[in-house]
Amino acid sequence: MTTATVLIRGMNSAASVMRVQSALSVIRGVYDVRLWPEQGRAVVSFNRGKVHPQQLRTAVGVTGCEVEALRIATTEAGASWA
Questions:
Q1: Which of 6, 29, 32, 81 could form a cystine bridge with 45, CB 3.0-4.6 A?
Q2: H-run or E-run covering 24
């Protein structure tokens, strides 16, 4: 399993938080989405064989928010920024 920590700018209202949660959750291959809006952070667990990190960026962008940084960590290897 792969986990992405996503730093998000613009997730500052209940509506924007719901939009980000929904946009990330509907991606086929995403298992779990946890948001910390006060920190501007999301942690997304997904299947790396089905989900490309760019899909996470695109999903957040569609909500009107912006990805500042995206860090990928897999159970097999260390973390890397994408």
A1: 32
A2: helix 14-25
